């Protein structure tokens, strides 16, 4: 004699709930909303989980070149977690002799540790690039926003136009401009400004120039969008109250366009921290940024666990400004 595991009424109720859930999931509106989340899951969360897992492995002469996180032997499972990569990242090159004080200890760490030194250099270069993009991009966006409507689209097109060509070709063209026998040095020699070529290529100046050139449109467009939406009645009210032009800009215009500046800063700062191509082509070989160190660990040393640990720490560093920007937006909307 056989019987049902659940009563007929229980099966019907569960089947009805399942069909309701399927209809809710199959709702076109929910499917459209779920596409970005699916995209983030496949192309961000899943790769990050893989990299995060590899960062707790150890280098091994095998394929793939790292130890397994899980090992199954004799019907049991062993979890192998190693923290040596993160230990190397923070303590590599640290002297065993005691330091005089904490400042001397920090100085020794950042001078002798290649990884921390490259992190610090990358963050400083990204910060300089962001500040320069603001100084150049804000007046440019202001000029475009206050130009004639007939020429405004042309000016915006000129800002975006370089992005239509290959990124690598643009950097190679910049190498030709900044080299010792390039257009810039030849022009300065012809004008009599200099007597001999200036060594610009393979310096931090060349790297900053390349980064500002490549990422300036990402600063101009958000600021332009904020300026276009600016409420000029506030500016007129400040003028009626006798405020000077600089005071109007500092107290009225800039705060009202700050969202555009912050958005542009995020679009510039985050990718420049991990930039690899520009420092590789325009910078010196002995002045590595974190992108170059990652490339060396992955492809030259084939130390995937160490490279994964570097990538995880870099991502954690980049999450900080994203969270700060998100909180600022929420506070602005609340006000």
UniProtKB/TrEMBL annotation:
The keyword Phosphoprotein does not apply. It is found in: Cell inner membrane; Cell membrane. Keywords: Cell inner membrane, Cell membrane, Membrane, Transmembrane, Transmembrane helix, Transport. It is a multi-pass membrane protein. Residues 119-325 form the ABC transmembrane type-1 domain. SUPFAM superfamilies: MetI-like. One of its GO terms (biological process) is transmembrane transport. CDD domains: TM_PBP2. InterPro entries: MetI-like, MetI-like_sf. GO terms for cellular component: plasma membrane. The keyword Cell inner membrane applies. Coiled coil: none annotated. The chain crosses the membrane at residues 37-56, 119-142, 154-178, 198-221, 252-273, 304-325. Gene3D superfamilies: MetI-like (1.10.3720.10). Belongs to the binding-protein-dependent transport system permease family. CysTW subfamily. This is Putrescine transport system permease protein. The lineage of its organism: Bacteria, Pseudomonadati, Pseudomonadota, Gammaproteobacteria, Enterobacterales.
């Amino acid at each position: 004699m056989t019987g049902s595991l659940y009563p007929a009424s229980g099966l019907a109720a569960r089947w009805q709930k399942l069909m309701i859930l399927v209809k809710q999931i199959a709702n076109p509106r929910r499917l459209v909303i779920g596409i970005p989340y699916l995209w983030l899951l496949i192309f961000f969360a899943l790769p990050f989980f893989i990299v995060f897992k590899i960062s707790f492995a150890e280098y091994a002469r095998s394929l793939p070149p790292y130890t397994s996180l899980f090992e199954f032997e004799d019907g049991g499972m062993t979890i192998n977690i190693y923290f040596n990569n993160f230990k190397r990242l923070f303590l590599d090159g640290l002297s065993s002799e005691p330091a005089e004080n904490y400042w001397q200890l920090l100085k020794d760490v950042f001078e002798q540790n290649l990884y921390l030194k490259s992190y610090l250099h990358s963050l400083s270069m990204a910060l300089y690039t962001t500040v320069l993009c603001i100084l150049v991009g804000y007046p440019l966006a202001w000029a475009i926003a206050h130009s004639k409507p007939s020429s405004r689209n042309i000016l915006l097109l000129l800002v975006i136009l370089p992005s239509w060509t290959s990124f690598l070709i643009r950097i190679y063209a910049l190498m030709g401009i900044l080299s010792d026998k390039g257009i810039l040095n030849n022009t300065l020699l012809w004008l009599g400004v200099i007597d001999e070529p200036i060594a610009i290529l393979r310096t931090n100046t060349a790297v900053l120039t390349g980064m500002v050139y490549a990422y300036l449109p990402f600063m101009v467009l958000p600021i332009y969008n904020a300026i276009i939406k600016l409420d000029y009645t506030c500016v007129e009210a400040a003028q009626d109250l006798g405020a000077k032009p600089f005071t109007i800009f500092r107290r009225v215009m800039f705060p009202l366009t700050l969202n555009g500046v912050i958005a542009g800063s995020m679009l510039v700062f985050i990718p420049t921290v991990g930039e690899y191509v520009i420092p590789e082509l325009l910078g010196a070989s002995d002045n590595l940024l974190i992108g170059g160190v990652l490339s060396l660990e992955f492809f030259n040393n084939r130390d995937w666990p160490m490279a994964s640990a570097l990538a995880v720490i870099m991502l954690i560093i980049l999450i900080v400004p994203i969270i700060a920007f998100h909180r600022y937006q929420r506070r602005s909307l609340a006000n």
